[in-house]
């Protein structure tokens, strides 16, 4: 069976930008992710911009995890090492299981672009209540690397030998 013979399953994806300075007009990373998911055939379930506050982040992401209207959460920003970067600390306690390979592969891909500066990326992925959550750095370039290098295939039901879609949908 070829890739073309398999059915595409559109996912409901929420996008969250974590930033103390961005708004809808300056959120190029969130805008990129929205464009990428819709061009791929997925549905935008929700979009938000929140200040880098781990309790606000946990509250918003928890509501998406609990909702049947969200199957994937893409978070951009707050993954660095400044005092305000709390995305990994906010999200990790919500996960039922971590996807260690996501952060590892993301850093491998960005090493080819940025060299050793990639060690400062705390990109994170995991599953919670049949919801996939991926935390990316805040730059548009990092979002593009994460989407084109990993997420586009792993969120595509046609990608073989495996993808995350089977973990996100109810099989009848």
TrEMBL record:
<comment type="pathway">
    <text>Cofactor biosynthesis; molybdopterin biosynthesis.</text>
</comment>
<dbReference type="Pfam" id="PF00994">
    <property type="entry name" value="MoCF_biosynth"/>
</dbReference>
<dbReference type="InterPro" id="IPR008284">
    <property type="entry name" value="MoCF_biosynth_CS"/>
</dbReference>
<dbReference type="GO" id="GO:0006777">
    <property type="term" value="P:Mo-molybdopterin cofactor biosynthetic process"/>
</dbReference>
<dbReference type="InterPro" id="IPR001453">
    <property type="entry name" value="MoaB/Mog_dom"/>
</dbReference>
<keyword id="KW-0547">Nucleotide-binding</keyword>
<dbReference type="GO" id="GO:0005525">
    <property type="term" value="F:GTP binding"/>
</dbReference>
<dbReference type="InterPro" id="IPR012245">
    <property type="entry name" value="MoaB"/>
</dbReference>
<dbReference type="InterPro" id="IPR013484">
    <property type="entry name" value="MoaB_proteobac"/>
</dbReference>
<comment type="function">
    <text>May be involved in the biosynthesis of molybdopterin. Can bind GTP and has low GTPase activity. Can bind MPT, but has no MPT adenylyl transferase activity.</text>
</comment>
<comment type="similarity">
    <text>Belongs to the MoaB/Mog family.</text>
</comment>
<keyword id="KW-0501">Molybdenum cofactor biosynthesis</keyword>
<dbReference type="GO" id="GO:0005829">
    <property type="term" value="C:cytosol"/>
</dbReference>
<protein>
    <recommendedName>
        <fullName>Molybdenum cofactor biosynthesis protein B</fullName>
    </recommendedName>
</protein>
<dbReference type="InterPro" id="IPR036425">
    <property type="entry name" value="MoaB/Mog-like_dom_sf"/>
</dbReference>
<keyword id="KW-0342">GTP-binding</keyword>
<feature type="domain" description="MoaB/Mog">
    <location>
        <begin position="14"/>
        <end position="158"/>
    </location>
</feature>
